[in-house]
Amino acid sequence: MKNGVLFQYFEWNLPADSQLWDQLARDARHLAGIGVTAVWIPPAYKGSGINDVGYGVYDLYDFGEFDQKGCVATKYGTRAQLEKAIAALHDNGIQVILDTVLNHRMNGDSPERFMAQPVAADNRMANTGEPREIEAYTSFTFPGRGDTYSPFKWHWYHFSGVDYDNLTGDTDIFRILGDGKGWSQGVDKENGNYDFLMGNDVDVNNPEVADHLIGWSNWVTDTFGFDGFRMDAVKHIDNVFTRRFLEETRRHAGKDLYAVSEYWSDDLAVLTAFIDTLGGSTDLFDVPLHFNFHQAGETGEAYDMSHILDNTLTAADPLHSVTFVDNHDSQQGSSLSSDVQDWFKPLAYSLILLMKEGYPVIFYGDYYSLTHTDPANEGENDEEETVREASPHRRILDILLHARRTYAYGDQTLLLDHPSTIGLIRHGDAEHPGSGLVLLMSNGADGTKQLSLGEAQAGRTWKEITGSIPEKLTLDDAGCGTFSVKGRNLAVWVMDPDSD
Ligand code: CA
Asked: What does the pLDDT read at residue 173?
């Protein structure tokens, strides 16, 4: 899709008021208007309770329809509300991408006893004691749903590991023992073997489990008409299974469902190896680029901006790169907290929205708001006081989104030739009259670049559209001019239509 934009429509601390689907339905037309072509929705099925962000999966078949775990609706609403939101998005030409959590299950219905091997947390290939019988909540019978949509019930032998023993209270990591059981091989090598992340680790190498999960994906695609998947935690799931899951779901759907996977690593070689193993069947979030943004924000003027794309997926494999600035995990206080400083966010977004490479994501917390717990009140009373602040970035994001859909076309010249002032030229194309732009940004002092845009631009006037530089610029007879940017800011220059 030409100049597509993916919108991550949630952040970690949204209120658990079951209103998000209604809000999203009301917002569909506006989202289409600002150039959003796909919305990534949070895990939309029942988690461990009403406050669950969605990653503590209890029942993949309960999209806010059954009275389970103390609620019918999820944190975001009911199934009926979700279906209205999907319809509103589709009516506005926007794809719906479902956050898909297959790695683990939480909050089982009853305990079971089975044999398990305790292993070391930092090396799951190393045993730390004798195998023994343990007890854990591995039985998922879904009393609130029964057999509706699927009769499948989960038991201990459908999982490969747990992290507690009810009998002793131990919180070690336990590898579940049984015929042919063991950690998956096609997972990240951190901690010896990173199959286990949390909760009850789903054993995708169990044929019943694999068939069940693929049956589920076919059901959700048929039932809700999702256009693709955001695959959660793939570094903890056997890559052979993830590949099969996507292949079989696409075959069943008869269309090329979109997929982007979360492989949280800043090691470019690990990311490209994963894409190869999956035969190119999924995009990946460019985690290394996020960490470059994080580092640039922390370092300030001393960061060498000419290296901003170094070791990124965007540079190495742009067709598989999904570019983002922050997300629900990297935001302040979350599990992978590495948020990009506010002063740098406009610069980071200008790069991902205006460069040719990558499929950019707008994060809800950056466009709308983040909910902040007021630290002044922590521990002083039981009522958690939250303050919802409007995002300071929405104004610049609206301008950059406008620039993306109006001007960001054609060939590109990267201007990564200075430690502070960098940017790029988009040369425009015939399909989009008046397109083409110059993006400059500086993490230090005011900067300029002497650029030659070609003789076709001789005498043309250019203007800056973020409002940082009021003076227009007229190019000389050779199409050359000196473009400028303010310090710790960005500038987006486009042709002034009034100069024709
Ligand atoms: Ca796993």
From this structure: 98
